[in-house]
Amino acid sequence: DTAVSQTPKYLVTQMGNDKSIKCEQNLGHDTMYWYKQDSKKFLKIMFSYNNKELIINETVPNRFSPKSPDKAHLNLHINSLELGDSAVYFCASSRPGGGGYTFGSGTRLTVV
Amino acid sequence: AQSVTQLDSQVPVFEEAPVELRCNYSSSVSVYLFWYVQYPNQGLQLLLKYLSGSTLVKGINGFEAEFNKSQTSFHLRKPSVHISDTAEYFCAVSSDRGTDKLIFGTGTRLQVFP
Fold first, then answer.
1. What percent of chain A is predicted at pLDDT more than 90?
2. In this predicted structure, what is the pLDDT of residue A99?
3. To the nearest whole angstrom, how far is the Cα of B11 from the nearest Cα of chain A?
4. pLDDT for A6-60, tens place per residue?
5. How many beta-carbon contacts under 8 Å exist across A and B?
6. What pLDDT is stored for residue A77 in this prediction?
7. Nearest CA in chain A to B3
8. What is the secondary structure of A54-71 as a DSSP string?
9. Percentage of chain B modeled with pLDDT above 70
10. Where would I find the beta strands (DSSP E) of chain A?
11. d(C-alpha A37, C-alpha A27), whole Å
12. Cross-chain Cβ contact B98/A48 below 8 Å
């Protein structure tokens, strides 16, 4: 059983389109995150949700909208995609006490 | 707020040689420290973590790291590397609540040569 699963794994789309990435965790964690890894491998936090509530929003364009229908799911919707949105997006989850942050396998988004 | 510095962007090393990947952090609060490995075109895998207690932490694949509070460092070491260790290594820090954001360093590319 995959602990943190993301779909799709690859996403190729044209500029201006709207797309969504889904994330689900079966670890019972309360906190979930979206990270963006750019072409230079730099990993940056985008959003964090705790029990379906947004707690971190790191200066991300408002074309990006996270949605958490329940604490096991955190989806990322992106409107009007731009070339600069091309990156690998990682979902993660964690629990109090530092047991660890578990990452999904990533979604490679390519905007053409 | 926390920050992480990985001074070496690339570390080339021959197989069976020892390696050290450096990581320094800054924080105004107590922290948890992590090392993650990313193999080509794959996700992030936790190598090891420091939460509290013994400052020498052992992880998977023969890696270990030492937490040094006075030098604010958490360097990763392996006594003898294999070709299969070729990957990107990320040091990361979070506050000691465990549910705050994880802040990553810029990564170190370990390249092991035969």
1. 74
2. 64
3. 16
4. 999 999 999 999 999 999 999 999 899 999 999 999 999 999 998 888 888 887 8
5. 62
6. 97
7. A44
8. EEEE-S--TTEEEEEEET
9. 97
10. 4-7, 10-13, 19-25, 31-37, 43-50, 53-57, 64-70, 73-78, 87-94, 101-103, 107-111
11. 23
12. no
Q: What is the mean pLDDT of chain B?
A: 93
**Residue of chain B nearest A104, judged by CA positions:** B43
Query: Do the Cβ atoms of B43 and A100 come within 8 Å?
Result: no
Cα-only R_g, chain A? 13
Q: Contact, B104 vs B91, CB < 8 A?
A: yes
Nearest C-alpha of chain A: how many angstroms from B47? 11
Judging contacts by C-beta atoms under 8 Å, the chain A residues touching residue B3 are: none
- At residue A1, the pLDDT reads 65
Q: How far is B10 from chain A (nearest CA, A)?
A: 13
